[in-house]
């Protein structure tokens, strides 16, 4: 491999001192922000090759990109594939029978069902029907998703090694079951930079009030990458980003003067210590200043037409809901945000699954489908990759007592379902298959590293070449594994 192809971190432009580099770009962006706050008409400058935030690739992709940005709808808790996209009539025929040992093949179980005297197979109480040109099976719980199924690439053969929530979510979000690695969005920002100097390249939106499994900030953190690559969480309410507003009595002009003096002190410290994290701190202060005007504008949904609220559903008018966050994700995508991460919790249904999953699907189905439709009608779907899915699947047997109307499902890493849309993936296909019991992948298995490799490929990045040197070795999102799933590519 050509050493020059490895990405080991950005450096100041040739011929520029650190001070000159920061003055040229820091003051320039600060001046643009001040002009905007004071009513100026200066347009938002896009990042280009050679700009301070063109990413470590400097705008030079490894191959042509099919996607410019990603919207990742993460269903935290592990949605049951057997109630959504993986139709298994055999489980209904053999409902209540013991899971055959020949199917389980000694797979480890969690402590929650591992001590059960029996493992009775549980068929879904929800009906399935075929939709779209490919005849994809979709549950009655997802009527809106079924109507856009011809836009989707449904993957029924995902698998992971992680069997518990924290390592499984960490694996999907960072490429490692052990915490401390950079998140997907951080890697994307590191490699590709930003297309909007006034908004973060990586934004996180969380549906509040659903905490069955906790979400940690490290899931959108930068790990060992410079901290400016970490995700910025936007919240509902009067302060979408914490500590962004000026304190009472501090004007924008006063804040600008304070930041200028603070930057001078940081420049001096950087020149003495050579600590690149000081450069990051300067950039973050400048970004926060510019966000004082850009964030309120993007969060303001008042100018959206009635037809859009009708499309996303009544919850779209309620700040913080999944529907409102999907609408906000579209607005962020329009403004060039590279990676938009939505989290919707509550899918961990060990018991009372029929009632619980009805609520989860009702909260997410219409808005997820609306996002696809909205992006398409605006000409954004072709270069926006949308992903829907959780951290693992659910067992084909019931955890706890199985009745005619109630059952639960334990964690199941051997197979689960996700879908992708737009951004260079094939439309209207179903990829991969599980056995007739819905327990093991039997066709076209896709590992977590394969998923990450394909996501980066669609963004124009070779997952083996986007690396960062840390503690004596080069790290990458896909560790030392991963292959691009070429059958997904349009």
Polypeptide structure, described:
It is a single chain. The protein is an alpha/beta fold. It has two domains: 14-43 and 244-305; 48-236 and 319-488, Alkaline Phosphatase, subunit A (3-Layer(aba) Sandwich), CATH 3.40.720. Helices cover 32% and strands 14% of the residues. It is built from twelve helices and 17 strands. The chain has helices spanning 18-37, 89-93, 101-104, 143-147, 165-174, 184-192, 252-273, 276-299, 306-312, 322-334, 353-377, 448-458, and strands spanning 69-75, 128-131, 136-139, 152-159, 202-206, 232-234, 339-344, 384-389, 393-394, 411-412, 416-421, 429-431, 433-434, 441-443, 446-447, 468-470, 473-475. The strands form five sheets. Strands 1, 4, 5, 6, 7, 8, 11, 12 and 15 form a nine-stranded mixed β-sheet that branches. The chain has a two-stranded antiparallel ribbon with strand order 2-3. A hairpin with a 4-residue loop joins strand 2 and strand 3 (136-139). Helix 1 packs parallel to helix 8. The radius of gyration is 24 Å and the shape is globular. The two termini are 28 Å apart. 48% of the residues are buried. Mean pLDDT is 88; it is low at 1-51.
């Amino acid at each position: 491999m050509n050493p020059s192809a490895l990405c080991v971190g950005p450096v100041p432009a040739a011929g520029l001192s650190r001070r000159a580099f920061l003055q040229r770009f820091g003051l320039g962006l600060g001046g643009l922000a001040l002009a905007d706050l004071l009513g100026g008409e200066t347009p938002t400058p896009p990042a280009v090759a050679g700009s301070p935030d063109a990413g470590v690739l400097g705008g030079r992709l490894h191959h042509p990109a099919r996607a410019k940005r990603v919207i990742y709808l993460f269903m935290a808790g592990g949605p049951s594939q057997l109630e959504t996209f993986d139709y298994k009539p055999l489980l209904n025929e053999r409902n209540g029978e013991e899971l055959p040992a020949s199917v389980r093949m000694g797979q480890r179980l969690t402590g929650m069902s591992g001590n059960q005297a029996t493992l009775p197979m549980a068929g879904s109480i929800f009906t399935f029907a075929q939709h779209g040109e490919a005849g994809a099976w979709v549950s009655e719980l997802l009527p809106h998703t079924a109507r856009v199924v011809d836009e989707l690439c449904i993957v029924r053969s995902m698998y992971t090694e992680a069997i518990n929530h924290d390592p499984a979510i960490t694996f999907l979000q960072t490429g490692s079951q052990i915490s401390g690695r950079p998140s997907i969005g951080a890697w994307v920002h590191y490699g590709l930079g930003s297309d909007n100097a006034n908004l973060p390249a990586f934004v996180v939106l969380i549906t509040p009030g659903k905490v069955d499994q906790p979400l940690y900030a490290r899931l959108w953190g930068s790990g060992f990458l410079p901290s400016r690559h970490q995700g910025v969480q936007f919240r509902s309410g009067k302060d979408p980003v914490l500590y962004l507003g000026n304190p009472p009595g501090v004007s924008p002009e006063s804040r600008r003067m304070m930041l200028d003096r603070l930057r001078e002190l940081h420049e001096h410290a950087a020149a003495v210590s050579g600590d690149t994290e000081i450069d990051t701190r300067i950039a973050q202060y400048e970004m926060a200043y510019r966000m004082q005007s850009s964030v309120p504008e993007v969060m303001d949904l008042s100018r959206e037409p009635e037809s859009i609220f009708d499309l996303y559903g009544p919850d779209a008018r309620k700040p913080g809901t999944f529907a409102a966050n999907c609408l906000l994700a579209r607005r962020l995508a329009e403004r060039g945000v590279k990676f938009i991460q939505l989290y919707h919790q509550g899918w961990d249904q060990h018991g009372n699954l029929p009632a619980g999953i009805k609520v989860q699907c009702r909260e997410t189905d219409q808005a997820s489908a609306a996002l696809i439709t909205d992006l398409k009608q605006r000409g954004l779907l072709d270069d926006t990759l949308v992903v829907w899915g959780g951290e693992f699947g659910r067992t084909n047997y019931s955890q706890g007592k199985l009745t005619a109307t109630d059952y639960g499902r334990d964690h199941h890493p051997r197979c689960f379902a996700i879908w992708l849309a737009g951004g260079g993936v094939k439309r209207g296909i179903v990829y991969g298959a599980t056995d007739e019991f819905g327990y093991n992948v039997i066709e076209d298995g896709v590992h977590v590293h394969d998923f990450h490799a394909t996501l980066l490929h669609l963004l124009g990045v070779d997952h083996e070449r986007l690396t960062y040197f840390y503690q004596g070795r080069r790290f990458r999102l896909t560790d030392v594994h991963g292959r691009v799933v070429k059958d997904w590519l349009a």
